Amino acid sequence: MYVAVMGYGTVGSGVVEVLNKNHESIVKRSTQDSLELKYILDLRDFPGDPNADKFIKDFNVILHDDDVKIVVETMGGLHPAFEFVSSLLAAGKSVVTSNKELVAAKGYELLSLAKAHNVNFLFEASVGGGIPIIRPITQCLAANEIDEIAGILNGTTNFILTMMIEKHMRFEDALRLAQDNGYAEKDPTADIAGQDACRKICILASLCFGKHVYPDAVYTEGITKIAARDVQYVQDLGGVIKLLGRAKRLENGQITAMVSPAVVMNGSQLASVRDVFNAILVRGDAIGDVVFYGKGAGKLPTASAVVADVIDCAKHVNRRKVFGWGPSAENYVADYKQQETALYIRVQVEDRNAALAAIEAQFGKVKLLSCEGAPDTELAFVTGKDTEQALLERLSAVNGSKAQSIIRVTDY
Ligand code: HSE
Fold first, then answer.
1. Atom 4 in ligand 1: which residue has the minimum CA distance?
2. Candidates 3.50.50.60, 1.10.150.50, 3.30.200.20, 3.40.50.720; correct CATH number of 2-130+299-315?
3. Residue 249 in contact with residue 255, Cβ under 8 Å?
4. Average pLDDT by consecutive 10-residue portion of the chain (412 residues)?
5. What's the burial of 255, exposed, middle or buried (CB within 10 Å: 0-12/13-18/19+)?
6. Which ligand 1 atom is nearest residue 154's CA?
7. Mutate-to-test residue for ligand 1 from 99, 133, 154, 273, highest number of ligand atoms within 8 A of CB
């Protein structure tokens, strides 16, 4: 059986490396007589690469080669990945992808196409890099109604936050290091502005709750506004700031979903997730909480998940692995501001005592936080729980203060 890889970047070259390195055991586990890499599609040249005989630049060579039964898409981006993958599925080839942008935007369409042509469309690597999460949700946790899912879903931002907290590194330097390590997206804005985590929570929410969740329905906030002082105030509270993707099933059939920085208290399993590691907490009605942890980005961890999918496709030729989700529904994602939460708020004030009185008049007794070296003209506190909308309305009624930072406090 033959395999082709489209896109020889960080992940694609990792896939080729793993396919070559562990060739013998991969073939054995695939239950096929052979599993050979036939083509690598990439428009760039790679002089001196040991796989020189496999490079092609024309997609049609793969599409029209009947011997190629499994194609790996590691090109990234929506176009032409979507057109290529659609054509391949329609031509009766199984496709494995690590491309979360593609799955988040077109997952329902591509799963339907795979179903219509009795082939597989697998994307374990699209969430959590090397962490097994798609298969565990669809298989091992299949007995549960999933109530909620929350995770540190972006390795780059978790790496940056860790470097800033522990090594006092500047944001730009930490980002450059993440790029050098092959963690970041081609355009790292997708990491730091939260879109990458958004795509991943969309895939998880679609899978857990059964209807396609599109990224534009999910409120998304990145890490660029977090100040060093917020990190310190939150330390005083006994927590850390993490970029979380979250989704929750509501009783009325809607869900909530969002990506934002969040305060996670030190006792939480999510608090100790450092560096490029990701962790995904799944709350099921039978299992309770279960956390999946591992390297969420990088060449070989991600290739590990891709190649496992290739093996699975090889084991299921002409047999579909039945999983996926249905189409989206109108107003399926509820307004996040109606969710109950507590908020960490940092405000700039003119008169400290007057401001504190005004804050407590709105919020009742609040927990004041301290931070070494903070100016007298600053107050940081944590509110009690209410809907976000109600808390923000109360904040806007506090005279003589200007909000500098607002971060949701979680109770995972
Ligand atoms: N840029 C992504 C991250 C890669 O940092 O998590 C893995 O999806």
1. 297
2. 3.40.50.720
3. yes
4. 98 98 97 97 97 98 98 97 98 98 98 96 97 96 97 97 88 93 91 98 98 98 93 95 97 97 96 97 97 95 97 91 90 96 97 95 96 95 97 94 95 90
5. buried
6. 6
7. 154
